Amino acid sequence: MSPTSRYATCAGYEIHYLEWGAPDAPVVIAWHGLARTARDMDELAAHLAPRYRVICPDTIGRGLSQWARAPEAEYCLSFYARIAADLFDQLAIESAHWVGTSMGGAVGTVCASGLFEPQLKGRIRSLLLNDNAPRLADAALERIKAYAGHPPSFGSVRELEAFFRQVYQPYGWLSDSQWRRLTESSTRRLPDGRVTPHYDPAMVQQFTHHTNDYLIWDHYDALDIPVLCLRGVDSDLVLREVTAEMLTRGPGARGQAQVVEVPGCGHAPALNVPEHYALVDGLLARAA
Question: Are the C-beta atoms of 49 and 20 separated by less than 8 Å?
Fold first, then answer.
């Protein structure tokens, strides 16, 4: 099954998304990580598409979506939630399950809480946090801030693929064809003809102008839905002490949260193998 590529205007920006599955099926939103694109969700979406309508957006400033005109104000979780709220309304999505990798998990958390966008409260039925948590490791955030604003450039796509294979090794196993697709769907040409990762470097202003944007315990505590946190066993971003705390407060205190450590991965599991699919399927079944 192949997706349909579509565009919507959300919060005044052209937002690209891929749509998989039947239009009348239950909806899953699959939201990618910080410097990534909707294509990261291809394998998971293909797995879910026979049973679900799967919507995979490119966040503003990533992939084929428009770049922010006011990056210091708009590259932040509250604006991403506004875009998500508009996307729900434009696509006539009454309710949806949410699968979010890294940043995409944080976007799902703040959407499900309803604290930023009250109209979304009660419309997210379950939340899968793929190597994301309400508090992230400071050292890892500093590492991300250091590289995200200065993406490297290369003379060839093959050199860029070698770079991606190195930096995204913590994703776990990917086939050669998956690495090639990850590269080709994450590449843009610069004016001098060199290639670089396909995102707006100004998105790093989320970390300089919104320094505590990923400290979102208040949003997590407001959740009253099933939550599954997948932690890559070697993750440097999601700390075990934080996942333990997740089980004692908010949905964890109500018996709605679960934490699973994913072997062979760091930040973040690629959600592209049967073992990962089974974890997603289990949450969706629990929330049905």
Answer: yes
